[in-house]
Structure formats: structure tokens, C-alpha cells
Design brief:
The chain has a 24-stranded mixed β-sheet that branches. It is globular. Helices cover about 0% and strands about 50% of the residues. The chain is an all-beta fold. A hairpin with a 3-residue loop joins strand 37 and strand 38. The protein has one domain. It has no helices and 38 strands.
Length: about 400
């Protein structure tokens, strides 16, 4: 055993614990626990971090049998380019416009395309514009210095079920904003500022700011993949920051997410979520949302959370920094297993217990710690509440005092 220790999980709670704290007694090493102070300890500070992240570019797969092959826009030859330039209440389309059908109303563009390998490049500014696509094929969408607001709905709206390759042009700043009310189209969904029926694959070394004022901010009815180099700031006052039906993969990049609505989630994933790199920081400040009782269902409550995932959540590398301040707020609220294999996970919850109980980590299944760094703090309730087994890799020691619970890795 080497001569130094690395603290891998630090779960701090006040002496006034609630009675739903998880019992770790069967995992506690029987001797040699380091002495710890009994006073309440100030938690670490978690704040949005916009600094550059020193990370390697991901390697583009070249084997067509690789399941990630089609998630990389570099593996498609984009044959046709259409430039969409916004200028206030006007918009101009140039390039291979004959490959698509389109309509323009003010600065609102609707594309209907049956062509394959089309690349749209959006630039300019409008406070009353949008970009909507009906496509039978996958397409590439590059944001090249775009500032676009749609006061009546989504700024970007992909109504096709195929892949949307969202590229942030290197060195550019881009902003998308919705209005405070949506004008819906019959038979269509429009769930947020950027909405896609298909998967959204984000790449490039530019930045994107997304403001959600009416619904969610960044939404896919399929899945998201975030690649190294991208910088994304999400601010949503009415719903979830990032929402996906079929999964989220974070391979890299810098994600900063702020959500403030009651019951909101920084990331809401209805399928599996995998973190392979990057730095993701989420601040959730909303309180408890209450669903009134009906004739067929009792009343329900939903608290805010940094991450809410309904299937396994796996952290292999990268950094997750999560903070929830509202009543009953959670850092991670997971239905499936939570697997921590590497990287760094730091969670702070400071909300009170009321209609919901705050937890740094709330798991309905297993918590499995194989490696990495985990810091878990809850000021007024359980730092960790796992209904399934808690599995700690060999070489870890779990101990607790009145105010602390710690997993220590001997390296």
C-alpha cells in the first residue's frame, strides 16, 4: 500500500439526520478509522465554470461497424451547402437552395427537404426569427455566429427523425432564445428552445448559449452526444435544461446548466446516460412541484435535481459538479444503477426537508463505486440513499461518524 490516501467519497450531513438515511454499518471497516471532528463542516463551493478545458479531441471512428461511427459528421461527405443569413426582420438563403423547398416569412424559415447530405450554415442576428426543418434524411447544421430569438416558439426546430449534426463553428459565439409563450402547430411537438425529433450530435470548438423561457431549453426525442471542444451554457427558468428520451452521452466539452423552475432537472434523461469526459456543472435552484390529485391518481410531488435518469447512469471519466439548493433538491436522482468507474463527481445539496427530502444521491437501484472521486454533501438529509446494494471496490474503506460518511481509496 502506498503511503498516501485519496478521499473518494465525502458525504457530510448535520447531526439532525432524518430517519431515511442509508445504513452503511455492514460496509464499515471494523478498525483503523481516522478521527474526524464532530462539528458541521462547510461544504465545498460549486459554481458555474466557463474556463477552457484542456482536453484531447476525440478520435473519429473509421470502422463502419463501430456503433458510434454514424455519430460523427466527419464520416459523411456533405454535398450541398445552404447559407442562411439573418439580419433583423429579414433572412437570406444562398448556395444550393435548389436542393430544397423553403418558405420565408419575415425572418422565419421553413425548409422541406428530400435531399441527402445537406449542410446548412446559420449566421447573423434576429429578435424575431426561427429555423424549422422537415427532412427525410440526416443533415448538418453549423452555427457560425448566430443570435436567434423566436418570441413564439423554438428558435431551431427539427421535425425530422433523422440525425441532426449540430456543429459550433470554431471560435464563434452563438445564442438561441425562445419566447415566453409558444404558438403550436397541430400534430407537432415543440418542447424547447432547440427541439429535435431525431438525435442531436454536438461538435465543434465554438460556444452556444441557450435560454429557455417557456418550456425546456435543449431537447431531443432521441439522444444527445456531446463531443470534446464544445462549450454550452443552458439557462432555463421554466423546465429542464437538457432533456432526452433515448439517452445522453457526454464524451467531452464544457456544459454549464442553470435551472430554476420548481421540479426542474438540469439534465433529464429517460434512458441510459454515460459520461466519458468533459466538465459538466449544474446548479438547480427550484423548489417542489406539486401535481394535484385526480380521480385516478393521488397528489404527487417532484423536487428539482441536477440529474434525473431513469436507467443506468455510468461515469467513466470527466467531471460532474452538481448543486441543488431548493426544498427537497437532489444532486443525482436515479432509477437505474449508478456506476462510478472513474472521473470526479462532486455534489452539494443545501435544501430543507419539507414536502420532499433532499439527497445528494438518491438511487432506486444499486450504487457501484469502482473508481474515481466522489464527494457527496447534504445539509439536512441523507447524503446517500440507495435502495439497492452499495458495492465498493476492493481497497476502499467506508466509515462513518455522527456527522460524516466517507469512502477512502488506498492508492
Amino acid at each position: 500500500m502506498k503511503k498516501y490516501l485519496t478521499i473518494m467519497l465525502l458525504a457530510l450531513i448535520t447531526t439532525a439526520c432524518v430517519n431515511d438515511d442509508t445504513d452503511f454499518s455492514d460496509l464499515i471497516n471494523g478498525g483503523g478509522q481516522p478521527e474526524q471532528p464532530e462539528e458541521v463542516i462547510t461544504p465545498i463551493d460549486i459554481a458555474l465554470d466557463f474556463t477552457d478545458l484542456d482536453e484531447d479531441d476525440d478520435i473519429v471512428p473509421t470502422d463502419e461497424t463501430d456503433e458510434a461511427y454514424n455519430d460523427y459528421e466527419e464520416n459523411t461527405e456533405w454535398s450541398y451547402t445552404i447559407n442562411v443569413a439573418y439580419n433583423g426582420d429579414e433572412v437570406t438563403l444562398t448556395g444550393n437552395t435548389a436542393r430544397v423547398r423553403y418558405t420565408i416569412e419575415g425572418a422565419h424559415v421553413v425548409i422541406r427537404s428530400t435531399s441527402n447530405r445537406v449542410h446548412y450554415v446559420l449566421s447573423g442576428q434576429s429578435d424575431n426569427g426561427s429555423f424549422k426543418v422537415y427532412s427525410e434524411n440526416k443533415f448538418k447544421l453549423t452555427l457560425n455566429g448566430l443570435n436567434l430569438t423566436n418570441p413564439n416558439g423554438a428558435a431551431i426546430n427539427n421535425q425530422g427523425s433523422k440525425s441532426l449534426y449540430l456543429v459550433l463553428a470554431d471560435g464563434t459565439d452563438n445564442t438561441l432564445t425562445d419566447g415566453t409563450a409558444y404558438t403550436d402547430t397541430d400534430g407537432e411537438q415543440m418542447k424547447g428552445t432547440l427541439f429535435s425529433e431525431g438525435q442531436v450530435l454536438v461538435s465543434g470548438h465554438g460556444s452556444l448559449n441557450i435560454n429557455g423561457n417557456a418550456r425546456h431549453a435543449l431537447v431531443s426525442d432521441d439522444y444527445f452526444r456531446f463531443r470534446p471542444g464544445c462549450k454550452i451554457y443552458v439557462k432555463c427558468t421554466t423546465g429542464h435544461g437538457i432533456k432526452a428520451n433515448d439517452g445522453i452521452i457526454i464524451d467531452g466539452g464544457v456544459l454549464n446548466i442553470e435551472v430554476s423552475a420548481d421540479g426542474c432537472k438540469g439534465i433529464k434523461c429517460d434512458s441510459t446516460m454515460i459520461v466519458n469526459g468533459g466538465r459538466t456543472t449544474i446548479i438547480a435552484t427550484g423548489g417542489v412541484a406539486i401535481t394535484p390529485a385526480t380521480d385516478i391518481a393521488p397528489a404527487d410531488t417532484s423536487s428539482c435535481a441536477g440529474i434525473k435518469c431513469d436507467y443506468p447512469l455510468t461515469i467513466n471519466a470527466g467531471s460532474l459538479l452538481l448543486k441543488a439548493t431548493g426544498e427537497g433538491g437532489k444532486g443525482i436522482n436515479n432509477t437505474g444503477d449508478i456506476n462510478i468507474n472513474g472521473g470526479s463527481v462532486q455534489i452539494v445539496t443545501t435544501g430543507i426537508k419539507g414536502l420532499a427530502s433532499p439527497k445528494a444521491i438518491k438511487g432506486e437501484a444499486k450504487l457501484i463505486v469502482n473508481g474515481g472521486y466522489l464527494y457527496s454533501y447534504s445539509a439536512n438529509s441523507s447524503p446517500i440513499d440507495a435502495n439497492g446494494d452499495i458495492t465498493v471496490a476492493e481497497g476502499y474503506t467506508l466509515w462513518e461518524t455522527k456527522t460524516q460518511r466517507v469512502i477512502i481509496s488506498f492508492q
